[in-house]
């Protein structure tokens, strides 16, 4: 570097902290974290135990039920959700294809996982979204956290999750929820904030309490947006179950992981398409349902 | 249930984070533009003193930006005042705590909005019961009461439609039914008819007047339309830049406009339909002559009576048929046309 001969050393070579210090800092943070986890391992285990039970129960239910019953229930849900024959037939065809290529059980495991994740994401996301909509301060605190959650590469936060919870389904579940909950929170917040000010004023003028306002006006009017949030959450959990298979989540994701490791081109694509099929079924059904919720907004005349 | 009057006393509203700090300066004469330019605060209302008649229709009139919608929102405190009082039945609405205010809004007031503000996801009947539902009235009873009002406003058969399926005029009927179902003493109507087209507006005015004859609620009606104000108002207050520039009956405002601004408004009014015969009649001299005209008849109707009877003279009689004054066609016509002075002033 010719230019460096004219510049002071400090401006030429970046004054990084020296390796020893960095190593020390790293070690103390890691050790401190590990010690903390070791200290509270029992409490953490007890806290996540219900999740484990719930997940195991649902997985067992899905896997051990005869396929024909699962298919019938699925078709019923899809039909009553969407009231659309095309989506229903599409569901039957794609589930049968999944069965023919021998991925039925893995698909059930993934389905159980996604169901639990979506459920938890809604339970966690809805109240946070409501809180955000009610308070500017909460919004300004939570928004950057959501930004971090959404941009941080998912592999990175798998590390602390594994350190805290170990390897297994529950850490996978938690990683998926962290990844999938932001759209739920954001769209709940957005939906409530977009509620017509005039209608809110009317609710106030009639003497609504804050809870009545939320229950009668804000939630119902925000519901289409919230449904879009749930839809996004489902899509993101489906995408994340593949990554979560690295920490021990079974199902289609693990097959994909094995296919990557062994260069099983066909297996990879079969599993990939199975995920796509489930994603499309969930997406179309929940969107059609969301649209039906807005039936009242059809204008007939006037 | 007897309605009470609403007293608005020394009400000030200054929009902005430090509104309270400027009240004294505004009282001392700081103007609206000055306040905005120097301090970045907006003067919404200043020194409002209105006594709204119990069981009557109080119309607050003004153009956009005059503060009329701000004023009506002080009565149920959707907006908090910067200074002043709003008294209803001896209680200052502005000093109520959260619970009292909620109870006051639930039981004493009902409001109709310019853009209807119906709940789009609820059917007409579900919208109409809203006030009662909030109060915790059992569903069956509130539906029964709501049904009655839906029929009164002419929406029978639409109970299970959604608001979006109705035209603007019909939606506002729902708004009115929702407010009436609440069975409150005070009916607040914030430009309730401004979004409706002229024919439907007149129609809705008639609905309100008919209902008011039997309900005798204390109605506060906001409008930017002087014809509407004159038709509905037992008393009218005209607002400009957050100040009341004149208040009184329609007759007083049309006959004695307080300044040029009001004169310009009044110029366009059909005086024949506003002014009553007793306002222009002369004292009775001698025997009553010509056709009898009852007190409270507007000039236009009196002229019609006289023309039909082919007479140029009439006498005014009170409700018991006793003659109280006399009238001739010339005075009648000169009172019906806009005075020259008004034309010149307005031009």
Please give the CATH class of chain A: Mainly Alpha
Radius of gyration of chain B: 23 Å
- What CATH architecture of the largest domain in chain B would you give? 3-Layer(aba) Sandwich
CATH topology label of the largest domain in chain B: Rossmann fold
User: Briefly, what CATH class of the largest domain in chain B?
Assistant: Alpha Beta
Give helix % range of chain B.
40-55%
What name does the CATH topology of chain A carry? MetI-like fold
> Sheet with the most strands of chain A?
none
Cα-to-Cα separation, first versus last residue of chain B: 49 Å
Oligomer: heterodimer
SSE string of chain B, helix = H, strand = E? EHHEEHEEHEHHHHEHEHEEHHHEHEEHH
SS element count, helices of chain A: 13
Shape summary of chain A: globular
Strand arrangement across the biggest beta sheet of chain B: 6-7-8-3-9-10
Q: CATH superfamily membership of chain A, which one?
A: MetI-like
Give the second-level CATH assignment, the architecture of chain A: Orthogonal Bundle
Structural class of chain A: mainly alpha
The total of beta strands of chain B comes to: 13
């Amino acid at each position: 570097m010719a230019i460096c001969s004219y510049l002071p050393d400090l401006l030429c070579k970046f004054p990084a902290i020296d390796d020893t210090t960095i190593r020390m800092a790293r070690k103390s943070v890691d050790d401190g974290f590990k010690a903390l986890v070791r200290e509270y391992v029992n409490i953490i285990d007890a806290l996540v135990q219900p999740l484990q039970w719930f997940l195991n129960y649902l997985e067992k239910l899905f896997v051990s039920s005869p396929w024909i019953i699962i298919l019938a229930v699925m078709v019923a849900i899809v039909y009553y959700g969407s009231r659309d024959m095309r989506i229903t037939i599409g569901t039957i065809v794609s589930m049968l294809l999944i069965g023919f290529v021998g991925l039925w059980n893995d698909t059930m495991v993934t389905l159980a996982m996604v169901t639990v994740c979506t459920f938890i994401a809604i339970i966690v996301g809805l109240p946070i979204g409501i809180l955000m909509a009610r308070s500017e301060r909460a919004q300004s605190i939570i928004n950057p956290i959501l930004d971090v959650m959404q941009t941080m590469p998912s592999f990175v936060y798998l590390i602390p999750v594994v350190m805290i919870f170990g390897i297994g389904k529950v850490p996978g579940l938690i990683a998926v929820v962290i990844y999938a909950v932001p759209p739920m929170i954001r769209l709940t917040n957005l939906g409530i904030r977009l509620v017509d000010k005039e209608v809110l004023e009317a609710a106030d003028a009639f003497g609504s309490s804050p809870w009545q306002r939320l229950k009668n006006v804000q939630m119902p009017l925000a519901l289409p947006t919230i449904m879009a949030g749930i839809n996004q959450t489902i899509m993101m959990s489906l995408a994340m179950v593949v990554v979560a298979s690295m920490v021990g989540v079974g199902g289609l994701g693990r097959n994909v992981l094995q296919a990557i490791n062994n260069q099983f081109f066909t297996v990879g694509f079969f599993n990939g398409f199975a995920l796509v099929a489930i994603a499309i079924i969930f997406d179309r059904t929940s969107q059609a349902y969301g649209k039906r919720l807005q039936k009242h907004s059809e204008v007939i005349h006037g | 249930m007897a309605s009470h009057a609403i007293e608005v006393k020394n009400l000030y509203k200054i929009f902005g984070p430090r509104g309270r700090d400027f009240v004294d300066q505004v009282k001392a004469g700081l103007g609206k533009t000055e306040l905005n330019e120097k301090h970045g605060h907006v003067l919404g209302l200043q020194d409002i003193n209105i006594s709204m008649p119990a069981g009557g229709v109080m119309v607050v009139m003004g153009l956009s930006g005059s503060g009329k919608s701000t004023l009506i929102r002080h009565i149920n405190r959707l907006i908090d005042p910067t200074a002043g009082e709003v008294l209803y039945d001896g209680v200052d609405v502005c000093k109520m705590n959260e619970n009292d205010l909620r109870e006051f809004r639930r039981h004493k007031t009902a409001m109709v909005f310019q853009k209807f503000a119906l709940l789009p996801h609820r059917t007409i009947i579900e919208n109409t019961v809203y006030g009662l539902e909030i109060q915790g009235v059992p569903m069956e009873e509130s539906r029964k009461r709501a049904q009655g009002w839906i029929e009164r406003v002419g929406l029978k058969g639409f109970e299970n439609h959604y608001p979006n399926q109705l035209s603007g005029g019909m939606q506002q009927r729902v708004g009115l039914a929702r407010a009436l179902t609440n069975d409150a003493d005070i009916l607040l109507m914030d430009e309730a008819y401004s979004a409706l087209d002229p024919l439907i507006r007149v129609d809705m005015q008639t609905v309100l007047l008919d209902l008011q004859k039997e309900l005798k609620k204390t109605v506060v009606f906001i409008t930017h339309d002087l014809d509407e104000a004159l038709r509905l108002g037992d008393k009218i207050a005209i607002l400009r830049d957050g100040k009341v520039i004149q208040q009184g009956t329609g007759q007083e405002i049309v006959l004695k406009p307080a300044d040029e601004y009001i004169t310009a408004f009044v110029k366009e009014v059909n005086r024949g339909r506003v002014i009553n015969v007793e306002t222009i009649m002369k004292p009775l001299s001698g025997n009553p002559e010509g056709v009898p005209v009852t007190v409270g008849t507007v000039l236009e109707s009196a002229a019609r009576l006289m023309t039909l009877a082919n007479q140029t003279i009439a006498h005014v009689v009170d409700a018991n048929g006793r003659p109280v004054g006399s009238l001739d066609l010339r005075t009648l016509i000169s009172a019906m046309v806009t005075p020259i002075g008004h034309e010149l002033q307005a031009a």
